[in-house]
Design a protein that fits this description.
flat; disordered N terminus; 3-stranded antiparallel sheet; 17 helices; mainly alpha; 3-stranded mixed sheet
């Protein structure tokens, strides 16, 4: 049976081959049919054959035009060398050359074009926002002063370690230097845990970091007066400067992102760092030349430090962000309450407070604990019904002179934004009440006033603020969006405390 089956399969295969391979006469007929069809198509559409004359024109004229960065070139067939005309067509061995259509740029413009390729993003100025130029100008000036100061601090440190270790081996000096750098890395690692705070108060932390950088430089210069304390002073200075470096690195990307109009954040970042490095090198070179004349360290440090901080302050102020942190939110709400208008992005950023010392009194607290906001249970019981339909509670603690916004456990980003808005509205009423009270005191000094006010005493102001917020919060959000402010998310940095069991149904 097996041989028979094999014969059947062979016969079937032969049959398939006979079907798929046409006879020689059939193939000839197909080729002739195709040729006839092509000739008929060429006869019916002569206009399509006309472009065959293009190669002849290309020999005598232009192959194509090209534009690069606003300058144009034409590519033509080279008449010499291997270029050969044959029946109106360029030979295979023909070559071409690029002919500029503009006159060559002057050497100065060539140099400026080369520099621009390193210091500005492609497509400048249309690829970045308008505030990019002032920011980079102040940044370059800051790095110039920073590079100049680095020469004096490094020279002072080297002199100090040499004096303090005059009888020690070079290995001991190296160990001191390594310990100094190691302390700085530890400080950088510990400070990096601040994390999200770099987003909440970007400008404030950026300027504070530059203040710390100058403080570290001052400590380094002080080692010249106390060379025997080189190691502890150098360690402290390096910790401070590394903390400043973390701040600068963490805030750099959000700032560059604010300037990039499209998907060019990498280009903006690269060119921004290039500008900083160039300015740093120029400052370093100038400082080396000045240091040869042995100027006064105190005078040099004072001048360079003032220039550095002045540039840093204006650099930070020139940044325009469209998010609302506490400082920009305060500017926006205050303007809305007083005038009914929301400031533009540029105006809101320019009015933002850059330097917030730790001892500064903050009149509004968001997400605080219950014990900080209320003095007695009766106040909470009286105020709670006013916020049954909200995911927050706002009150005023007169003993601490602060408005508190307590968040409920289901508060969402918009609830946090509304709670902050309500807190500023209540603060406006409180300030007006204090102004009237002080005026009455001045008019009638014999009248007695309550010296220990309670939360309950300000219940009328809280009730009035609830009515104002109910009718004006939607208008505030709408006008803020029209000015370009992002209202979907905020950077108000609320506390982590949440009230449980009082969420509206």
């Amino acid at each position: 049976m097996a041989p028979a089956m094999g014969l059947k399969r062979t016969a079937a295969a032969a049959a398939v081959q006979t079907v798929t391979l046409p006879a020689p006469d059939a193939r000839v007929a197909v080729r002739e049919a195709v040729r006839v069809a092509v000739r008929e198509a060429e006869a019916q559409a002569p206009a399509r054959v006309a472009p065959t004359a293009a190669p002849a024109a290309a020999v005598d004229g232009v192959l194509c035009l090209e534009e690069v960065d606003g300058r144009r070139w034409s590519y033509v067939v080279d008449a010499g060398g291997a270029a050969v005309k044959a029946k109106g067509r360029a030979s295979v061995g023909a070559s071409f050359k690029a002919v500029p259509l503009q006159s060559p740029l002057p050497p100065v413009e060539e140099i400026m074009s080369f520099i621009r390729s390193y210091v500005v993003p492609e497509g400048f100025p249309h690829s970045v926002t308008p505030s990019y130029v002032p920011y980079m100008s102040w940044r370059a000036l800051k790095h110039f002063f920073g590079g100049a100061m680095g020469v004096f601090t490094t020279r002072t440190l080297l002199n100090s370690v040499g004096v303090s270790q005059s009888r020690a081996t070079s290995g001991a000096v190296a160990i001191n230097w390594i310990l100094k750098d190691g302390a700085g890395r530890v400080g950088k690692m510990l400070f990096a845990r601040q994390g999200k705070k770099f987003d909440y108060d970007l400008k404030q932390l950026r300027f504070s970091g530059d203040l710390l950088m100058e403080l570290g430089a001052g400590i380094e210069l002080a080692t010249a007066a106390f060379p025997h304390l080189f190691l502890p002073m150098a360690c402290i200075a390096n910790v401070v400067k590394n903390v400043a470096a973390v701040t600068s690195t963490s805030t750099r990307t959000p700032i560059y992102k604010a300037y990039a109009k499209g998907e060019n954040i990498g280009d903006v970042t690269a060119k921004g760092e290039s500008v900083g490095n160039i300015a740093d090198l120029l400052g370093t070179g100038l400082s080396i030349l000045i240091s040869k004349s042995n100027p006064s360290l105190v005078t040099s440090f004072a001048f360079l430090s003032c220039g550095y901080l002045f540039s840093s302050y204006h650099e930070v102020r020139s940044v325009v962000l469209n998010t609302l942190n506490r400082a920009r939110f305060t500017v926006a709400v205050d303007s809305f309450i007083k005038t009914g208008y929301i400031p533009t992005l540029k105006d809101g950023n320019s009015q933002e407070t850059i330097f917030n010392p730790p001892w500064r009194h903050e009149p509004v607290a968001i997400g605080s604990r219950f014990g900080e906001a209320f003095q007695e249970p009766a106040s909470f019981v009286a105020i709670k019904p006013l916020f049954e339909d909200e995911r927050y509670i706002v009150t005023y603690n007169p003993t601490k002179d602060k408005v508190y916004a307590l968040l409920k456990d289901q508060a969402k980003p918009d609830d946090i934004l509304k709670a902050a808005f309500h807190a500023h509205v209540l603060l406006h009423f409180i300030n007006a009440s204090h102004a009237n009270l002080n005026a009455r005191k001045r008019m009638n000094s014999n009248r007695s006033y309550q010296h220990n006010p309670l939360n309950m005493d300000f219940l009328p102001h809280i009730e009035e603020s609830c009515k104002i917020v109910m009718s004006s919060y939607g208008v505030f959000k709408k006008k803020a969006r029209e000015q370009g402010w992002i209202m979907s998310e905020s950077l108000l940095n609320p506390g982590r405390a949440r009230l449980c069991g009082v969420v509206p149904q």
